[in-house]
Amino acid sequence: MEIELSETQQLVRNSLRELLEREVPLQRVRELERVQGMDEALWSQLANLGWLGLPFSEAFSGGGASITDLSVAVEEFARYAAPVPFAEVAACGLVLERFGEEALVRPVIDAITVGTEILVPAVLDASDSYLQPPEDTCSGGCFSGRRLFVDFGQSATRLLVRGGPAWDHALLLVTPEHGSVVRTPLATTGRVQTSSLVFKDAPAIASTAPGAYGFLFDLMRCYTAVQCLGAAQRALDMTTAYVKTRVQFGRPIGAFQAVQHHLANMATLVEATRFMTYEAVWAIEQGVATEEQLASAKAWAAKASIEVAPLAHLLNGCIGVTEEYDLHFFTLRIKERSLAWGSVDECMRVAAAHVADAVDWL
């Protein structure tokens, strides 16, 4: 695996960072959080500049970006706490392109590219919790059921819903028309738009071939790890800048050895997370990813970023515990993303199940 970013990936990172630095002030993110909104102005700008076509091949008039290229973009959106569903829409679009019939998916991808279609995954039901939903039903091209913790579910124009065992867990392309989906906002730690969705005879099409759900799940697990990385990196950057300017006892606190030790620990955790997550992304791209590898990468990213955030608050001192200070954006995002698409415990159980597997070290 090549550790350094390619020229293309550096261009993606630098161009997107310049755009987000200019267009996503954290005060606006605060205002959107209060109403659980997405940044529609930014989304339109991303469409106009061609960013929403980045995931798709030239056959779909897209940018032809690799999964790793997209990971670089996902990290930048996380670094700025941008309330837009770039990772979710990109993952769903890739699934449709790879596993769907062209005649069905081309209009959807065209609409995604111009920003008029917001397609997000809705795959978590409540079958393993105390919330017992009605059984999923699908008849006459309509789907009924319930899905929980759907990121940007309130803004979605279409959803990729994981069907039940009767459909071999295929992904259904569901269109919320004429009140067929009841969307209930959920309050989460990360304060981003999250919903519980109840489908009542919503128009649905079995849109993908076998294997689509597994690819979507693997991709979203990796992109969620990348989001943890982006938020942790921003927390480290903010803290490094702070200790250079905060003066105590006549010199910047960054000159004290104890502070340097904490920063070194934070930097080590962030760099280890970067390697683990991008190795997992590369493995998906090469078609050699294993369930254990992806679970291990997500578990590490979640655990390491959760360790970075409190150290950042510690070194920022009293100002670090006020919500008016921007560090809170990234602490809360880290906590919420650490739970999404597999918590540390869930991922470690997956990894533990493979401990006895033989390993080919060659």
Features:
about 350 residues, alpha+beta, Butyryl-Coa Dehydrogenase, subunit A, domain 1, Butyryl-CoA Dehydrogenase, subunit A, domain 2, Butyryl-CoA Dehydrogenase, subunit A, domain 3, 3 domains, two-stranded antiparallel ribbon, 11 helices, globular
Structural class: alpha+beta
Silhouette: globular
Give the helix proportion (percent range).
40-55%
Largest sheet: 7 strands, mixed
Report strand %: 5-15%
Rg, rounded, reads: 21 Å
In the CATH scheme, the class of the largest domain would be Mainly Alpha
Distance between the termini: 15 Å
CATH-derived architecture of the largest domain: Up-down Bundle
The count of β-strands is 9
Report on the structure:
By secondary structure, the chain is of the alpha+beta class. The protein has three domains: 111 residues, Orthogonal Bundle (Butyryl-Coa Dehydrogenase, subunit A, domain 1); 87 residues, Butyryl-CoA Dehydrogenase, subunit A, domain 2 (Beta Barrel); 141 residues, Butyryl-CoA Dehydrogenase, subunit A, domain 3, CATH 1.20.140. The chain is built from eleven helices and nine strands. The strands form two sheets. Strands 1, 2, 3, 4, 5, 6 and 7 form a seven-stranded mixed beta sheet that branches. The two termini are 15 Å apart. About 2% of the residues have low confidence.
